[in-house]
Amino acid sequence: MGMDEEKMQEQIFILQQLQAESEAVQRRIVELELVQAELDKTIESLEYFESLDGSVEALMNLGGGVFAYVDVKDSKKMLVDVGAGIIVEKQVDEAIETLKRKKEKVNENIAKLEQVLQQIVGQARRIQEELAKAQKESKE
């Protein structure tokens, strides 16, 4: 007693859904990895600022590929966007802490998404095996 045609069509449809889902999850993981890389870069810059004494000359990105040299008098205070467009002034070390926490959250999200991906892949594999078996049986 094999799988009927209708059941096979249904399974193939589910398989396509799973494929689309897994692609969406993979895209999200890539986006989060980019966020992570950006956070790393910012943390690195802030750690550099923290190691400085007195004023420092920095490059400011004015957009459109234009940079300006600016004198940073107080390199120990930073304005940090804490979300929802709210900007707060923080000491450099606090800013680093904030970003490290953000990075941990991003890490957790990546880990969760990778688990979801495993589940989707596992489910897809089971359906593929069922379909292969059903096709073999229908040929016999």
Explain what you see.
This protein is 67% helix and 18% strand. α1 (5-50) packs antiparallel against α2 (92-139). With 140 residues, it is α+β, with helices and mostly antiparallel strands. A hairpin with a 5-residue loop joins β3 and β4 (87-91). The longest helix has 48 residues, at 92-139.
Number of strands: 4
Instruction: Return Rg in Å.
Output: 25 Å
Arithmetic mean of pLDDT: 88
Q: What is the beta-strand fraction?
A: 15-25%
Major pleated sheet: 2 strands, antiparallel
Elements, N to C (H/E):
HEEEEH
The neighbouring-strand order within the major sheet is 1-2
The unreliable regions are none
What structural category arises from helix and sheet content? Answer: alpha+beta
Distance between the termini: 12 Å
Helix content: 55-70%
Overall body shape: rod-shaped
* Count of DSSP-assigned helices: 2
The gist of it:
The chain has 140 residues and is an alpha+beta fold. The protein contains 2 helices and 4 strands; from the N terminus they run αββββα.
Features of the shown structure:
single chain; 140 residues; alpha+beta; two-stranded antiparallel ribbon; 67% helix; rod-shaped
